[in-house]
Amino acid sequence: MNNTNKYETLDPENWDKLKTLAHQMIEDSFNYIQTIEERPVWQQYPAEVRNHFSSKAPLEPNSIENAYKEFVDKILPYPMGNIHPRFWAWYMGNGTVQGALAEFLASIMNSNLGGGNHVAVLVEEQVINWMKEIIGLPSDSSGLLVSGASMANLVGLTVARNTKAGFNIREEGLQNAPHKLIVYSSSEVHSSNQKAIELLGLGKNSFRLIPVNDDYSININTLSQAIKEDRKEGYKPICVIGNAGTINTGAIDDLNAIADLCEQENLWLHVDGAIGAIAMLSDKVKPLLSGIERADSVASDLHKWMHIPFEAGCILVKNNEDHRNTFSLTPEYLTHETRGLPGGHLWFSDYGIQLSRQFRALKVWMSVKEHGLKRFGRMIDRNIEQANYFADLVKKDSEMELVAPVGLDIVCFRFNPGGLNDEALNKLNKEILMQLHERGIAVPSYTTLNGRYCLRIAIANHRSKFEDFDLLAREVVRIGREVH
Ligand SMILES: *Cc1c(COP(=O)(O)O)cnc(C)c1O
């Protein structure tokens, strides 16, 4: 049926024609994911493609068919790579085609999750309730889905600051703070926490980075000492950030020991669980995370080890009132009512920075409905097994070595044929990494631990097979010998 509206709108001019194209899009994109393994993990886009993106915005309509054709030619062939079974860089997830369909449905409804009386609010509320249950926080905790753990950390740390500052920070700001407010974490803490602390006006110098033990977990004695010293100086310690899976090595802090200390010292315990919190679904990891349920706030990432398509993160706060008091601000035009659309028992804009918010809960909700929590747990377990499998390959090979203990699904290693100093090895391993990427073989990432540059794989990948790690081990040694 053609669009019979006599006024110009943004709806399709010909619905039937668009339906045909939409079916084609589904066909193409499913085939694309089904055959993903046949293509390079990553490839540099050519100069011709780069130049393609410098044209001015068109002033008049063209057609979606043409725009789609450009997408297929110029965009789709050059993905970041994290949909591929041999992508293990930084810390990502694969996403799923079902998640993509759910995003489509959410966009069709185009509901705004800032607030109001509509059913999407119940979906987000239910997802948050599921997260509380997974992580072990009480059912009357509050929560919010956010873009990712960076935002979750910012929201959690804002509640921590406002609750523990000892004065009304929303009224007074930090301009006349009687004491310098101090936050603690390990030296392995993720940079998003420092960004949050800078944004909160506390300043980087108020963020104490405590040294770690050999397993890269925070040294509790040093932490305890640092808090005492700060008090002696007249500063006001407010919060400790515990790490449930560090970005470098997957290390988990002793969360119970930190929780004990926070209780004694009356400090807020925030847990950055971007990597590890969802691993509560794994029976093997769960005991290592003991104490996470004692946190005042927990940040988690659902687009990482749960493979929800970007973006999806979650912040939980144990004390609903603290959370609400930090963010709730209701002008007349947003007055909450008890009836009609301005009704509704829960306005998410009272719990975060955003007013307009996408319906990101739907893709999480549908994924959980489809797969069930146990399947996610099994996917996590397999990745951990694969990390240990690969670590064994490294240990068995006289030309490779581990650079840190395996933490969860993260392995840090390097090619080391012997007879080279660290400087030469750093250069050699960086070259190996670049060639792995540029030849499209595999995409590990890198980090530097105690001055030693290493290759690092973080296996949050539901598509990786054990054979993929055999291949990585072989190729690292092959390229390493070639370059050396
Ligand atoms: C990825 C990560 C973050 C940041 O999360 P985003 O989803 O990228 O915003 C924070 N902390 C840790 C430990 C992470 O691994």
Low-confidence stretches: none
Q: Roughly how many Å apart are the termini?
A: 66 Å
CATH superfamily heading of the largest domain: Type I PLP-dependent aspartate aminotransferase-like (Major domain)
Question: Whole-number average pLDDT?
Answer: 97
Number of strands: 12
Radius of gyration: 25 Å
User: What order do the SSEs take from the amino end to the carboxyl end, as H and E?
Assistant: HHHEHHEHHEHEHEHEEEHHEEHEEH
Order of the strands making up the biggest sheet: 2-8-7-6-5-3-4
Tally of individual domains: 3
Folded structure, characterized:
With 484 residues, the protein is α/β, with parallel strands linked by helices. The chain folds into 3 domains: 15-78; 103-372, Aspartate Aminotransferase, domain 2, CATH 3.40.640; 374-483, Aspartate Aminotransferase, domain 1 (Alpha-Beta Complex). 41% of the residues lie in helices and 13% in strands. The protein is built from 14 helices and 12 strands. The protein has helices at residues 15-34, 47-52, 64-75, 97-109, 120-135, 149-164, 169-172, 191-199, 220-232, 255-265, 320-327, 361-396, 422-438, 466-483, and strands at 87-88, 142-146, 181-186, 207-210, 236-243, 268-273, 297-301, 313-317, 400-402, 410-415, 443-449, 452-458. The strands form 2 sheets. A 7-stranded mixed sheet has the order 2-8-7-6-5-3-4, sandwiched between helices. Helix 8 links the parallel strand 3 and strand 4 (207-210). Helix 4 (97-109) runs antiparallel to helix 12, helix 5 runs parallel beside helix 12 (361-396) and helix 6 (149-164) packs across helix 11. The radius of gyration is 25 Å and the shape is globular. The model has no long low-confidence stretch (mean pLDDT 97). It binds pyridoxal-5'-phosphate. The site of pyridoxal-5'-phosphate (PLP) has 12 residues, from helix 6.
